[in-house]
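agent> Task received from the user: take the single chain below, predict its 3D structure, and emit structure tokens. No templates, no multimer pairing.
agent> Plan: (1) validate residues, (2) run structure prediction, (3) serialize to tokens, (4) report one or two observations.
agent> Step 1 OK, no nonstandard residues flagged.
tool_call: predict_structure(input=
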Amino acid sequence: MFRLVAVALAVLCSGWVSAQVDVDLTMAREAFLPEEDIDVGVRISNFTGAPLTLGKEPKWLQFTVERIAGSVAERLSEPPESGEFTLEQATRGKLTFNITPLFRLSTPGAFRVSAMVLLPGGEQALSAPRTFEIISGARIGAREVGWKAPDGTVERRKFIVQKGNFQKKAQLYVRITDSSEAHTVKVLPLGVSVSFDRPEWVVDRQTRFHILHRTDASHYLYHIILPDGTIESRRMLINDGSGRTQFRVNEEGEIRVFGGVRRAYPGELPASKETAASTNSVPPEAKEAAAPEVPDAKKSSTNDVQKVQEPR
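)
tool_result: status=success, residues=312
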């Protein structure tokens, strides 16, 4: 009899602890191209009344991805270990994971992702699912270049410009592949693009890919992309009224943008001093055009620790 009561109390305590830990997921966007990084933020809130230590056990955090139609996505690898960390009472921690290397998500469709957090006593805290879509991108054009890799070898890389549509909004992307397009190095979202204007692109003498596209009637985004998938520069320009905003190459082979002036905005790279001061003055269309910063797929972070209020 005593043993049965003890087991019942253990089950009740287990459920009580998991009920005091909230897990929810965040995603910056809801549509992605095949092989694009899909960053999922996991927010964990501690309402247990005591410090909560997580990350000691391997596989303490697990994701599940399934098609809304019903089939479970094939798992390719486990999430990278975050390391041990402690959340004080009434604080929230956030970790960000790229789930693209973890599951086979190469075909278009609608998916849902959820997370399970293993708590110190063996209890499980589950998140509500978040939905997202893998969409097909229409190919606009491509440019193949020779690139000298850091180890000195010369490789062929291809910059492929694609456009995807989701909820009546067009997004522009650059996919970087090998010459055969069998291996994708990186898929980079460049931001919202208007349907009535074709982006311009050109490669400079340093094998950097320059691409300029219009985000609304007067604003443009200008990216400089390296063959390894790094965005070296991202700037917003506004048409100066003198004519079309466009690329021109001078006699020295340098690429310049004519017909536009730079305007500071939150997503520019490298960040400038004007960015912080101009955040509140950027129009909604400009903010929407900013491509999300893509973290290292092998890393996670716990630097978003915030005070939260306990539920009443």
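agent> Step 4: summary for the user.
The first helix runs from residue 2 to 19.
agent> Done.
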